[in-house]
Specification:
Blueprint lengths: L7 H18 L2 H4 L6 E7 L11 H12 L8 E7 L7 H10 L4 E5 L1 H10 L5 E7 L17 E6 L1 H15 L5 E7 L3 H17 L2 E7 L5 H11 L3 E5 L7 H11 L4 E3 L11 E4 L3 H15 L16 E5 H7 L5 H6 L2 E3 L1
Parallel strand pairs: 1-2, 1-3, 3-4, 4-5, 6-7, 6-8, 8-9, 9-10, 11-12
Antiparallel strand pairs: 10-11
Helix pairs in contact: 3-10, 4-5, 6-7
Length: 338
């Protein structure tokens, strides 16, 4: 994994938060299970069940807890709810979890975290990978969240602009870049705004391709085709489980150089991916579970942000699109698909 530097002010801020988090969480290992079974509610958009064997994210969370002395089924149990790729179910499912009165909630991503925050102001919520949480008002600050929400967050807006820069490096002649973004997620809107504001300095023209539902995809694809972009940035939290494969199929069919979030796109034939690795966040979430189980107040537990990001480049896709990836960019890649 390679460290990608953000602005010096951002790096300093993250370092301060990380240091504060270390101070708060250093006693976690010594705490261990609190002497009663901890009940955790978890809400996800796609995963049908809680499966620590087959699901890598669930496995990381359970392994992190095991390292802290917890045995699944004895010291900790999970009540899992899935929206089954229908995000409109989040409010109802969050309310159902809250009504069962768990000790805490673990909420992967922004959508479940937001709905959980509406459903309860008292049950501790541990977010994993929620985006732009200060800017959207989920927490007061990273250092002191101030409410019942803490955990691990991502500054998606800042990373979005970095994706444009990487796409420009891969396709140096790119002057028109389309941005495909999900308007139902505030973090995606912030990401697009960040790209749009920075476009003059980057010397590119931005085409906004905004969707609010899967039924708008055909219209969005037609807009991209008619716009003839030199590249595409995908800022997208799926509305349905088959959304991402549809996007990947479209860009590969039309040979549009595209950069996705990490873990999305390259496997299906996309050109590039860039972002933080989510799996370590789930293991790290175990420390928050343990601390809260032993009486810590989430309002005072600092929110952590990743400082390391991964770049993945698909050379097979580049060849199919007639793109020669510069050696300087290849040397900085964390993984190359050939």
């Amino acid at each position: 994994m390679r460290r990608w530097q953000q602005s010096s002010r951002r790096v300093i801020a993250i370092a301060v938060v990380a240091f504060a988090a270390c101070i708060v969480l250093t006693r976690v290992a010594a705490a261990g299970p609190p002497g009663h079974t901890v009940r955790i509610g978890i809400l996800e958009g796609i995963a049908p069940t809680f499966d620590p064997v087959a699901n890598p994210a669930h496995r990381e969370l359970v392994e992190g807890l095991r390292e802290l002395g917890y045995t699944l089924g004895r010291d900790v149990v999970f009540e899992h709810k899935s929206a089954q790729s229908n995000v409109t179910m989040f409010p109802q499912l969050a309310a159902e979890l809250v009504s069962s009165k768990p000790d805490m909630l673990v909420m992967p991503a922004y959508g479940p975290t937001l709905e959980a925050s509406k459903a309860t102001k008292t049950i501790p919520i541990i977010m994993v990978g929620a985006t732009d949480v200060v800017e959207t008002g989920l927490v007061a600050s990273l250092a002191r969240p101030g409410g019942n929400i803490t955990g691990l967050a991502i500054n998606a807006a800042e990373i979005a602009a970095k994706r444009v820069q990487l796409l420009q490096e891969a396709v140096p002649d790119a002057s028109r870049i389309a941005v495909f973004w999900n308007a139902t997620l505030p973090g995606m809107a912030l990401g697009f705004q960040n790209i749009d504001r920075g476009s003059p300095q980057l010397g590119v023209t931005i085409q906004s391709v905004r969707v609010s539902g899967s039924g708008e995809f055909d219209q969005a694809f037609a807009a991209i085709e008619s716009g003839h972009p030199d590249g595409l940035v995908v800022l997208f939290g799926p509305l349905r489980g088959d959304d991402l494969p549809r996007i990947v199929e479209f860009v590969t069919q039309h040979k549009i150089p595209t950069i996705f979030e990490l873990g999305r796109g390259v496997r299906g034939g996309g050109l590039m991916e860039f972002g933080p690795n989510f799996l370590p966040m789930f293991r790290r979430a175990a420390a928050y579970v343990d601390k809260i189980a032993n009486g810590a107040d989430p309002a005072t537990l600092p929110v952590e942000e990743p400082s390391q990001f991964e770049l993945v480049i698909n050379l097979k896709a580049a060849k199919n699109m007639g793109i020669a990836i510069p050696q300087s960019l290849l040397l900085r890649a964390d993984r190359i698909v050939e």
